[in-house]
TrEMBL record:
Pathway involvement of the protein, from the record: Amino-acid biosynthesis; L-lysine biosynthesis via DAP pathway; DL-2,6-diaminopimelate from LL-2,6-diaminopimelate: step 1/1
Family: Belongs to the diaminopimelate epimerase family.
Isomerase recorded as keyword: yes
UniProt-listed Pfam families: DAP_epimerase (PF01678)
One GO location term (cellular component): cytosol
Gene3D superfamilies attached to this UniProt entry: Diaminopimelate Epimerase, Chain A, domain 1
Full protein name: Diaminopimelate epimerase
Keywords, alphabetical: Amino-acid biosynthesis, Cytoplasm, Isomerase, Lysine biosynthesis
Domain of life, source organism: Bacteria
Length: 283
């Protein structure tokens, strides 16, 4: 089975084209491929292109725990670059159907930069309601966080703090992701406002854990600080892996632009794709 690996600011994805497979990917295969010791290692799998009735292409997005994500900003930018590398698109705008809605995408700078119109950001986890960010309190391990929910197609919990670092995301990310408040779990962002056009974020991704960057997280965090009047409509989101630019209009439609890099192409062996979780019996 062939694969291509890319990263977008250190958020790495493996692209698998359904035409290179006889059947879909099993849960075990997804977990093994994404595992950094037993597989190639990645923050997720982009399974496409598939046919779409409404868009030019359709894409499925899998997290390393084999759950399916509705949307991924960096995943969509990487998939767009893959389509461009395969000469399936040129430099004009094209559309991609995801479980979390349709996006449109443009590849620029000889593939090195990709912009995606992420659609409308809503300020709940459901797709209806809340025209602006609304604070709610979340209690986790004796600590109270004031958080803002956002939906970019996938769910986000945005927490504003005076300072952020990887420690806070690693300490509280998993507990917030799995908090019973969130029926479908959540992605989590810890956000520090730097000035009116820049924020710093640390990310804990649903189904993936701590990541160096995330496009939908950048979109959610930027939309919340814009909605609260803390930043203007053009925001550079700084993450440990690099910077993504988010532009937001008055109705909270967001456009994301940033770098994409191809790492390698390869072929999985059937031995490597088999269940690696072997129980060894010692008598
Ligand atoms: N890395 C992504 C987000 C991937 C999906 C996420 N883990 C989820 O389950 O919603 C991005 O760049 O947006």
């Amino acid at each position: 089975m062939r694969f291509s690996k890319y990263h977008a600011l250190g958020n790495d994805y493996i692209v698998i084209n359904p035409k290179d497979l006889n059947a879909g990917l099993s849960e075990t295969e997804i977990k093994t491929i994404c595992d950094r010791h037993y597989g190639v290692g990645s923050d997720g799998i982009l399974y496409g292109p598939e046919a779409s009735d409404s868009c030019d292409f359709a894409l499925k997005i899998f997290n390393p725990d084999a759950s399916e994500a509705e949307k991924s900003g960096n995943g969509l930018r990487i998939f767009s670059r893959y389509l461009w590398d395969q000469s399936l698109v040129l430099n004009d705008e094209f559309t991609i159907e995801t479980k979390g809605g349709m996006v449109s995408s443009v590849v620029g700078e000889q593939g090195k930069s990709v912009s995606v119109d992420m659609g409308k950001v809503r300020f709940t986890h459901e797709l209806l309601g809340e025209p602006e960010p609304t604070a709610e309190v979340l209690k986790v391990s004796g600590r109270e966080f004031s958080c803002y929910l956002a939906n970019v197609g996938n769910p986000h919990c945005v927490i504003l703090l005076d300072e952020v670092d990887d420690g806070i995301a690693k300490a509280f990310g998993s507990q917030i992701e799995n908090n019973p408040r969130f029926a479908n779990r959540t992605n989590v962002q810890f956000v520090q406002v730097i000035d009116r056009s820049s924020i710093q974020i640390e990310i804990w991704e649903r189904g993936a854990g701590y990541t160096l960057a995330s496009g939908s997280s950048s979109t959610a965090a930027a939309s919340v600080v814009y909605g609260l009047g803390l930043c203007d409509a053009n925001i550079n989101v700084h993450m440990p892996g690099g910077v993504i630019n988010i532009k937001i209009d008055e109705e909270f439609f967001a456009t994301m632009t940033g770098a994409v890099c191809k790492i390698c192409e390869g072929c999985f062996s059937s031995e490597g794709l088999a269940d690696q979780n072997l129980a060894v019996e010692v008598n």
